[in-house]
Amino acid sequence: MGGKKGAADGLGRALIKNHNQMVRDSKEKGRALHLQQRRVLESVTDVSDIDAVLEKAAEADRVYSFDNPSANVLINIDSSMNMDEMMEEERGNLRKQEEALYASSLRIPRRPPWNARMSVEELDANETKAFLEWRRNLARLEENEKLLLTPFEKNLDIWRQLWRVLERSDLIVMVVDARDPLFYRCPDLEFCTAIIEFIANDQQYARELDELKKTLLLVNKADLLPISVRRHWAEYFHQHDILFVFWSAKAASAAMEGKPFLDQFKEEITPEQPIQEDLDTKIYGREEILVRLQSEAEVITARKSRNNDNRGGKHLETSNVNSIAKQVVVGFVGYPNVGKSSTINALVGQKRTGVTSTPGKTKHFQTIVISDELILCDCPGLVFPSFSSSRYEMIASGVLPIDRMTEHREAVQVVADRVPRKVIENTYNITLPRPKSYERQSRPPLSSELLRAYCSSRGYVSSSGLPDETKAARIILKDYVDGRLSHYERPPRDKDAEVNEADDIVNSNFSSDDEPNACDPDGNCTNVEAGAQEHSLSNLLDDLKSFELAGALASKNAPVAKKKAATSSHKRQKKPQRKKDRSWRVGNDDGDGMPVVRAFQKSAVNWASIAAPNR
Ligand SMILES: Nc1nc2c(ncn2[C@@H]2O[C@H](COP(=O)(O)OP(=O)(O)OP(=O)(O)O)[C@@H](O)[C@H]2O)c(=O)[nH]1
User: Fold this and answer.
1) Can you tell me which atom of ligand 1 is nearest the CA of 379?
2) Where is region (Disordered) located (predicted)?
3) Residue among 261, 222, 257 nearest 350 (CA)
4) Which of 173, 402, 478, 573 is surrounded by the fewest CB atoms within 10 Å?
5) What's the 385 CA to ligand 1 centre distance in angstroms?
6) Secondary structure of 220-282 in the HEC alphabet?
7) Dihedral of alpha carbons 248, 43, 40, 318, sign
8) pLDDT tens for each residue of 305-348
9) Distance 340 CA to ligand 1 centre (A)
10) Which atom of ligand 1 lies closest to the CA of 264?
11) Which ligand 1 atom sits nearest the alpha carbon of residue 220?
12) In the predicted model, is pLDDT for residue 396 greater than 80?
């Protein structure tokens, strides 16, 4: 009897002990999770940020102290010396070759295998190790002097948010800015059956997670694109087997509030009453997009349940949650500032997530229940690693914060290169200095010209008494990001074919010409640029007139050159001096021909010295 009682006591004690241990473990796990969640999530994209470098280097040392003593390779070593010495064109070609070679290395970090039985510490250590390995691989690419790797997200916690959203989602919606969809696209996250330029299908992360997942490209801010350009993009997406839909979170929000919404081309967007038959170019309304998202996601879950038996453990763990809940999950991912939160707010019908033009506002992913069948998941914006753009392009594209930039002239040059001269002048009511007579007349304005013209028109002066270019640069860049300064890209095929599509820009704010600064907002070449070719010879002669060589060359084209000089106002001031010289030379040319011989002798020297700068 006593023995039985003792055994029962022992069992009871063991059960209580086990229970207490479980409580302690779960408390600890909870504390660790709580601490992890309390960490302020801040995007780190810049390796020149010394704190980030030191922090990450220290982290690397901690993790790699045993198996990798050279973990400090994470620091970006700028070894571009040799490249600088190369010719620009040669450098560009080399870079393209290298980019093609290493394109498949531009992967987003993979979450290492995990299961629910792992402790928080084990999970954290595995993820940190895998992440640092990924960063080391990218650091190796950065060391390649022929490659230019743009700033990318270096905060593991932000990537963790993406991993969670990807794992939960049946359908992944990649939100891109309609003005340059390819810039904001991450092929590694796409699921498509056609050949993607960079990454073989089986290497795509979306596929690795679950081959039944799908990615939909949500081309947001479509209100900033004319319909003709939407059509070209639609063709491009079809050709590349990319699932897409045009959307405008702004138009959808306005429609919900019952306000009329005019796009940039003064056409009213009425998404709920489709007047356009063409579903490819149509900007979807809120209801339509919700139905589309739900149906796409339902197809995926139906396929998943059919394939349930064949799936591996990893898939079961993530997808079971959804099938039990009988809800489909749609995850929104993309670069910062492309309009993910605006889209979610428009779909939810109320402000659920913060919206601002400053990138990186969304810090943690959010889950929003739309209905019993549909859940949306908003991921923080992520800067994916890429070769294709410069830091300045990323600032101008709104991906890196404008307020933190230091090289404002370089970033503004991106704007000046892309927005037609006339559009800049009309938007700001300023006059930009014309190119000098010896310069290419269709060249874009220099950022210094734009900034100074802007500062002088607004009276922006810094404390040093110089034009406040920093202030002007911020305003111009914000206008560019917000769409006040109109611009958009065309699909690559269009550029290659150099198609002249003047009809595409009839209603647009600006030119569609491949040389953006060559035409006015109506698509007509401006006086200066239209006459660029016509004037080129006279401009060249105008330069040459400063030299004695001009006499000989001008004699051939004298009537044309004289006429142009007479009609061109900026040449009039110099006319008396030149006229005097020219009359002397022409007179001699008409005489015994001696000056021709003299000029010919001198030209051998002078031509070489003056032609070089124009090349
Ligand atoms: N013209 C236009 N602007 C839009 C549209 N959608 C969003 N925007 C603007 O784009 C900017 C960024 O929008 P957000 O919704 O905060 O972008 P996000 O992708 O959530 O940004 P992060 O929080 O950094 O990830 C804001 O200034 C929006 O007003 C649109 O459809 N049309």
Assistant:
1) 25
2) 558-595
3) 257
4) 573
5) 21
6) ECHHHCCHHHHHHHHHHHHHCCCCEEEECHHHHHHHHCCCCCECCCCCECCCCCCCCCCCCCC
7) positive
8) 777 656 555 544 444 444 444 688 999 999 988 998 899 889 98
9) 7
10) 1
11) 31
12) yes
Task: Report d(CA 176, CA 185) in Å as an integer.
Answer: 6
CA–CA gap between residue 36 and residue 34 (Å, rounded) = 5
Closest by CA position to 190, among listed 148, 231, 229, 244: 244
- Residue 329 Cα to ligand 1 middle (Å): 22
Q: Tell me: the pLDDT tens digits for 486-526?
A: 889 999 865 554 444 434 433 344 443 333 433 333 333 33
Mutate to test the pocket of ligand 1, among 220, 265, 355, 488 (most ligand atoms within 8 A of CB): 355
Would you say how long the chain is, in residues? 615
* Spacing, Cα 360 to ligand 1 middle (Å): 11
Q: Whose CA is nearest to atom 2 of ligand 1?
A: 221
**Cβ proximity of 219 and 233 under 8 Å:** yes
Centroid of ligand 1 to alpha carbon of 49 (angstroms) = 26
Q: Which amino acid belongs to residue 120?
A: V
CA 615–ligand 1 middle distance (angstroms) = 43
- Alpha-helical regions (H) of 384-483: 391-396, 408-418, 421-428, 447-458, 469-482
The rounded Å distance from CA 308 to ligand 1 centre is 38
Whole-number pLDDT of residue 492? 85
The DSSP-derived string for 152-206 is: ----HHHHHHHHHHHHH-SEEEEEEETTSTTTT--GGG---SSPPSSS-GGG-HH
Q: Which of 40-49, 256-265, 403-412 has the lowest mean pLDDT?
A: 40-49
Q: Determine which residue's CA is closest to atom 9 belonging to ligand 1.
A: 339
Residues lining ligand 1, CB < 6 A? 220-221, 223-224, 248-250, 336-342, 355-357, 359-362, 380-381, 483
Rama region for 368: left / alpha / beta (φ>0; ψ in -120 to 50; rest): beta
- Tell me, what DSSP letter sits at residue 48? T
Q: In what order do the strands lie in the sheet with 244-247?
A: 283-284, 244-247, 214-220, 171-177, 328-333, 374-378, 366-369
**525 or 124, greater pLDDT:** 124
> φ, ψ for residue 188 (rounded to 5)?
-65, -20
